[in-house]
From TrEMBL:
<keyword id="KW-0732">Signal</keyword>
<feature type="domain" description="Glutaminase A N-terminal">
    <location>
        <begin position="101"/>
        <end position="318"/>
    </location>
</feature>
<feature type="domain" description="Glutaminase A central">
    <location>
        <begin position="328"/>
        <end position="683"/>
    </location>
</feature>
<dbReference type="InterPro" id="IPR033433">
    <property type="entry name" value="GtaA_N"/>
</dbReference>
<feature type="signal peptide">
    <location>
        <begin position="1"/>
        <end position="21"/>
    </location>
</feature>
<protein>
    <submittedName>
        <fullName>Outer capsid protein VP4</fullName>
    </submittedName>
</protein>
<dbReference type="InterPro" id="IPR008928">
    <property type="entry name" value="6-hairpin_glycosidase_sf"/>
</dbReference>
<dbReference type="Pfam" id="PF16335">
    <property type="entry name" value="GtaA_6_Hairpin"/>
</dbReference>
<dbReference type="GO" id="GO:0005975">
    <property type="term" value="P:carbohydrate metabolic process"/>
</dbReference>
<dbReference type="InterPro" id="IPR032514">
    <property type="entry name" value="GtaA_central"/>
</dbReference>
<dbReference type="InterPro" id="IPR052743">
    <property type="entry name" value="Glutaminase_GtaA"/>
</dbReference>
<dbReference type="Pfam" id="PF17168">
    <property type="entry name" value="DUF5127"/>
</dbReference>
Amino acid sequence: MGAFHLASALAMAALPALSSAGTVSLPSYPLAVKSPYLSTWLPGNQTADVASGQPEFWAGQSVNWPILARVAGKTYTLFGVPQGVSGAVAATTTGVSFTSTHTLFTLTAGAANITLDFFSPVYPGPEHYAKQSLPYSYLTVSAAADDATDIQIFSGIDHTWTAQNGTAQLNYTSTGTAGFFWFYNPDQYYYSEDSDMATYGSILYGTTSEDGVTYACNSPETVYNTFSTTGALADVDVCQGNQLAALTKDLGSVTQGNVTFAVGFQRDLAINYVGNAQTGYHRSNPDWHLIPDAIEAFLGDYENALTASGPFDEAIRTRSENVSSDWGGQYADIIEASVRQTFASFEITVPLDDLTASPQIFLKEISSDGNIQTVDVMYQTWPVFVSLNPEYLKLYLEPVLEYSATGAWPHPWVIHDLGTHYPNATGHADGNAEQMPLFECASLFILLQAYQKYTNDTSFAAKYTSLLVGWADYLNENSLYPASQLISVDAIPAQANQTGLAVQSAIGLQAAGIILGNSTYSDTADSIATTLYEDALGLDGDTVDESTHFTYYYGAADTWNVLFPSYSDVLLELETFNSSAWSLQSEWYSQQMQAGGLPFAGPENYTAYGMDINWGLCDWNLLVAATSSADVQAVIVNTTHTFLTNGLNAIPFGTKYYVKGDEVGVWIGNKARPTVGTNFALLALDQGYWGYSY
C-alpha cells in the first residue's frame, strides 16, 4: 500500500485523503489483531461489501462486530451485519486499504462518507513493552458530509469473541473518562482453550465518556430497532451474557466527526509458567493495573497512539521499498501485511507475584499444534526483531534458558517447546516433547548470537554458560552425520544424514564458539563445512566443480531443499561456509522455479519425503532469497506477492501453498503464524537494526 498521512485522512474522513493508499488485496484483513486470543479478521473475499462482511477469529470462528450509522434519520449498515437490519440500507463500500498497523474501509451512506479505521498499535521499542502488552485495539468511525448532517454511530460486540458460549456475565461499567461493557465469567477455568479461543478472561468494549454516548445490551433486533428509531440507546447496564452489547455516539449535525471505540481481551492470569502465574506486563504500571484503569488509559492514549503510528507505518513502507528499485513495492506490501500478525502471536508478561520483574515474552505456535515457546518457530520468525528490536530475542529466550537451567528437561539437547498447549508453559519434565535435537540446539545458538551481535550484550549468555557448554558439546559430537530426526519442516519424516541439518548444526556450532569463546567449537564447525562443501559430502557431485547443488540427504544426488540456514551464516557474518556455497545453491534455485514459486524440496516424487513436494513455504523462501542472486530475489518476492494477493484464499497470511499443478497459488496450511516475521530477512540483511524507538 502506498504510504499516506493517516492522521490527516481520519481528520478529514474523506475519500481523497486516502487516494494514495493503493489497492492491493489481502487474503484476510487484520481488524483487532493484538494477541493470540484477540485476533479478529475480515476475509478478503468479503471486502467488496463490508456491510455484510462476517469478521472471524484467526482460526475461522465467526465473531460478531456490527457497525451502523444513522444519517439524516436513515439507518445504514456499515460493517459486520451479514443478515442485514430491518429497515436499514447497506452502505456502499468504496475503498479498502491498509498500513502495517491500520486497516481502513471507506463507504458512502446517504450524504455521508464514512471511514472505518481498525487500528492495532505496534510499539516495538524497548521503552514501550508495557504499551505493547496492552491487549486492546481501536476502531474509529469517521464521518464527513458536504453540508451539516445529523449523524449517529452504533457499534457492538457479543460473546462470540470468547469460547465461553454466552456463560459470562455482562454489565456496563464506567470510570471517570470511559464507559465499557465487560464480559466476565466468575466460574471460568483458567489457562484453557477451545479450538484455539480462550475459555477464560475478560472481553471489553468501550468508548470515552462524553456527551452523546449511550449504551444498551439486549437482543440484536431490539438494540438495532431502538437505534434505528431514536438514534440512541436506553442506557441498559445489566444484561445476559448472550446479548449484544452496544454503544452509540451522536456526532450531532456536522460536516465531519468521529468516535473511537476500544476492544480488548484481558486475561490477568495470562500464562502458566511452570505453575507460576504470569500477567500482562502493562500491569506493572500502577495506573494500568486494574482492567478499568487499563481500558481507560488505552482510550485516553488514542491521539498519541495515532500520532506514533504515522512514522512507524511510514518507516515500514519506505524502508521496505528501498530494498529494491525493481520489486520494493511488492516487498513493502508483504512486510506491511506481516507486522500485526507477528506481534499478535506473543504476549509480554511479568510474574503476577513480582510486578517489578523484567518482562518476558511467550509465543504461541499458531495454526499447527499450539505449542508454547517453540524454539524453531522463533527461529522462523527472528529477522523482524533484528530490524525492530533485537532485545525481543532475549525476552523470548529467557524462559527457555531459565527452565532448562533447573535441570527438569532430562535430555542433553535443547527442548523443542515449553508446553504442548498455550498458555501452559509447564515444561516437559518427562522428556516427552517433539524431538529436534540438532535443529533446536543450532537454532538457539543462532538466536543468542543474533541478540549479542545487535545489542553487544554478552552478560545474558554468560548467566547460562554451563548449560550452553552442554548443548555446544552435543553439537560438536553429533553434527556431521545427523541421526534420524526431524527438522522444523516436520511434515517430512525423520531420516538420517540430512545435509541441511548438518549445515544448520555447523552454523549453530560456529555461533556457540563465539558466544562461549571456545575455538574448539569453531574449528569443528569449519571442519564440518569443509567436509560438506569442499569435500562434497553434501553435494550432488564428487567434487565442487562437478556439483550443482546441496542434497537433501547424503548420497541422494537428485534430492535438494531450500537451504535456509544460509541466512544466519551471512547475516551474522559467521562465514562458516564459503560464499560460493550459497552462490551454487542460488543458481540451483533459479532452475527449480515453478509457476507459483520455489518448491521446498525436490524432486517432487522422491519417496523418502512421504509426499509429493508440489508446495512451497514462502517464509523460508524469503529467507533464502536474502542470500541468493538478484534474479532469484525478484522471482521469490514476485511469487510470494502473487500468492498473498491472488484472491484465491481467505485466511490470515498463510505460508504453505501449491507452487505447481492445477491449484497453483492455493493455500494448504499454516496461517496467522508469527513466522511471517521471517519476511523481514531482506530488510534485516540490507539495513540491520533500525535503531529507532517507535
